[in-house]
Structure formats: structure tokens, C-alpha cells
């Protein structure tokens, strides 16, 4: 486990070169004099380097989840290296924004850490002609880490009720008796807690508040939502902004995907779940919890119901699964062959095998196999 996190840190450090959450990776080509890179590769449907099947050359635009930003960077790099006729741009603007872009027909696919609701599925029929509608393909999972900045405290334990009270401004000092009880022998400072949350519409917020509302309903009187509903606290845009806020402010606490905590070397909270010992956020503990999820949906639609209330030993309870959202039929004919090939690569063994080194959890084999099968049925 230690080696995985170390590798992840080295890999994720390169993510700091990403500007404004936009990932653009293209094949080498010639400049047409307008400053745009024009690929010289001919359209192909043949196998690319490493046996990767390439779809017909196209330019693909995707947007959405910041949780999968590092995974998408890896996928795009490896796919376009093998299939140089395709250009892929992924704009990590947040799940809510990605859903909106897709439903307005602006993108070939969306990344989202929370599923579309029934009203949005109905709306998707306008961008999925011929009787189609949007479907969800779970592609990557991972822990939502609770990050904190508390000098001198190298290990901090919290549980669902204390987290709910902290993020709802009911516990406001770090040496509060409720926190002290969970951390015997730890010298907690008499310092105000600076709770922070996402300012944008976020699937990470949706999953974090799903955990709080399910496991600590008496302390978290709000429904889960992509928009923050609780009392006032500091705000920051996107996961990168929230992680930076915690790192830069003593006494701060926030919630981000583990990948962002690893990249910035921010300590994370261990969660007391009722198991024999508190559980740290890492790839293995998240994978174990996600393996307890229940598949839902019909046809080619596949949504996972996560078990936020897990008490299994070594299962980290606060997780998210990122879905790629496309049409079951009626996808844009000019981009669908390339999109389908890219999705097929993402779900392949080669596409999935390096994700744990990026700080992502392993999806159950039965789920990944189902995703591969479903992609092949889409049109």
C-alpha cells in the first residue's frame, strides 16, 4: 500500500501542470498557420499501438467530474498515443456542469459522480434521437478523503456524527469534547474549525452528503445534493480549489477525492465506522467498500448503490463512482465511433490497470465486465 501511494504522488505531481482543469492531449500533426494543430493521420478503425482498437478519427469533447481528472489524463494520453487520428479534450468543470453540457448537446460524453435524475433522463431524449436516452457507465471509483490542516496532529479520527456537526457548524472548535473522545491521547489545539465546501455543483458533494444523511441523519437534516445545503462555511471552486484552501489555512477541513490529497500531501481523516478499528482513506479500503455496492438500472444503464453505512473491517465508507454518460442510441454519428472506441479502452484491462497508482479504487470485476458488454450494445 505504501508503494502505491508513493507512486501515486509522483504521478499526480505532474497534474499540477494542468491549467484550469482542462486536459487537452493530441497527436502530433502539422500547423495549418492558424495556430491550430492539424493531425496528419488518416482515419482508421484498425488496431493501434499495444492492440488498442481505434475508432474512426474524430475530435471528441467531454466535460464534468473533477474526481476523474487524473484518470482521464492517463486515459487520453495512452489512447491518443495509440490512436493518433483522434483528439480528445476533457474539461473538468464539475459533475453538474458536465451533465448540463451533455444535456445541451455540447459534448460527446459527460463524466459525473452522481447519476442523472428522472427529469434529466427525460430531457436527454432530445439529444439522443431515435428513441434513445442517457445511460450511465461506471468507469472509475475512489474514496472521498476528509482533509485537514492541524499542525502537530498526525492522525485524526472522526465519525459520521462528528463530521455532520462540524460541517453544519455545530462543532466549531478542534478541542471539542466529541472530537477529543474519538482521539484519546491526542493534544488537540484550542483552534476554530474552518469547515469548507465546494461552491460549484458537485458529484463529490452529492456523495459526501449522501454519506452524512444516511449514516448520521439526526445530525445532518438535509437531503443529499450536488449543491451545498448546510449552514455557512468557507467555499472553494472544484476539488483543486477546495484542496488548496485546506492546505493553505490552519484549522481547515474539507472533502476531496483522494487523488487531490495525495497530490498536495495533505493529511486525511480516519473514519470510525463501528468496525474494530478506524479506517483510513486508501485504494484498498475504498475498493473493499465499493465491492459491497448493489448494481441498479436496466438495459445498458448501470448505476451502483454504494453502502455508505458499511461496518466491515477495512472498508472505507465515503466513496464515489464516476459514470461516463452517453446515449444508449442516437449518439452523434460523426463522433460516436471514436467515442465508443475510447470508452471501450477505458473499460479494458489495459485502461483500468494503472488507476490504483493514481489513487483510484478498483471496481468489482462483475461491474467492469458488464460495462464492457454494455458499451458494445450502444449506438
From TrEMBL:
Query: Quick check: keyword Transport in the entry?
Result: yes
Q: Which GO terms describe its biological process?
A: phosphate ion transmembrane transport
Q: Which domain of life is it from?
A: Bacteria
GO CC annotation terms, alphabetical: ATP-binding cassette (ABC) transporter complex
Q: Which PROSITE patterns match?
A: PROKAR_LIPOPROTEIN
List ligand-binding residues for phosphate.
65-67, 95, 113, 202-204
Tell me what this protein is called: Phosphate-binding protein
Which organism encodes this protein?
A: Streptomyces piniterrae
Amino acid at each position: 500500500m505504501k508503494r502505491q501511494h508513493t507512486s501515486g504522488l509522483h504521478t499526480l505531481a505532474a497534474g499540477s501542470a494542468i491549467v484550469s482543469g482542462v486536459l487537452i492531449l493530441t497527436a502530433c500533426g502539422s500547423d495549418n498557420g492558424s495556430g491550430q494543430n492539424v493531425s496528419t493521420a488518416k482515419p482508421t478503425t484498425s488496431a493501434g499501438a499495444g492492440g488498442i482498437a481505434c475508432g474512426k478519427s474524430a475530435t471528441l469533447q467531454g466535460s464534468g467530474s473533477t474526481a476523474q481528472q487524473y484518470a482521464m489524463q492517463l486515459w487520453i494520453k495512452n489512447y491518443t498515443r495509440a490512436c493518433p487520428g483522434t483528439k480528445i479534450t476533457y474539461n473538468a468543470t464539475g459533475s453538474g456542469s458536465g451533465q448540463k453540457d451533455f444535456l445541451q448537446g455540447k459534448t460527446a460524453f459527460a463524466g459525473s459522480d452522481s447519476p442523472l435524475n428522472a427529469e434529466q433522463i427525460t430531457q436527454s431524449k432530445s439529444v439522443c434521437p431515435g428513441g434513445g436516452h442517457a445511460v450511465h457507465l461506471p468507469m472509475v471509483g475512489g474514496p472521498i478523503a476528509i482533509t485537514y490542516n492541524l499542525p502537530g496532529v498526525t492522525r485524526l479520527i472522526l465519525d459520521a456524527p462528528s463530521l455532520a456537526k462540524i460541517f453544519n457548524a455545530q462543532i466549531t472548535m478542534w478541542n471539542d469534547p466529541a472530537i477529543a473522545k474519538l482521539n484519546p491521547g491526542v493534544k488537540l489545539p484550542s483552534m476554530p474549525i474552518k469547515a469548507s465546501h465546494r461552491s460549484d455543483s458537485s458529484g463529490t458533494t452529492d456523495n459526501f452528503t449522501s454519506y452524512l444523511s444516511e449514516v448520521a441523519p439526526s445530525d445532518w437534516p438535509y437531503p443529499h445534493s450536488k449543491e451545498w445545503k448546510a449552514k455557512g462555511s468557507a467555499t472553494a471552486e472544484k476539488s483543486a480549489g477546495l484542496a488548496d484552501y485546506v492546505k493553505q489555512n490552519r484549522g481547515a477541513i474539507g472533502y476531496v477525492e483522494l487523488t487531490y490529497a495525495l497530490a498536495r500531501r495533505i493529511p486525511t481523516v480516519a473514519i470510525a465506522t463501528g468496525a474494530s478499528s478506524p479506517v483510513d482513506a486508501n485504494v484498498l479500503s475504498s475498493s473493499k467498500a465499493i465491492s459491497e455496492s448493489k448494481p441498479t438500472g436496466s438495459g445498458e444503464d448501470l448505476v451502483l448503490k454504494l453502502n455508505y453505512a458499511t461496518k466491515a473491517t477495512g472498508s472505507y465508507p465515503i466513496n464515489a463512482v464516476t459514470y461516463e454518460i452517453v446515449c444508449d442510441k442516437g449518439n452523434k454519428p460523426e463522433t460516436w465511433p471514436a467515442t465508443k472506441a475510447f470508452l471501450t479502452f477505458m473499460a479494458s484491462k489495459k485502461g483500468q490497470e494503472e488507476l490504483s497508482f493514481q489513487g483510484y479504487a478498483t471496481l468489482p470485476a462483475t461491474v467492469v465486465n458488464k460495462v464492457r458488454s454494455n458499451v458494445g450494445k450502444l449506438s
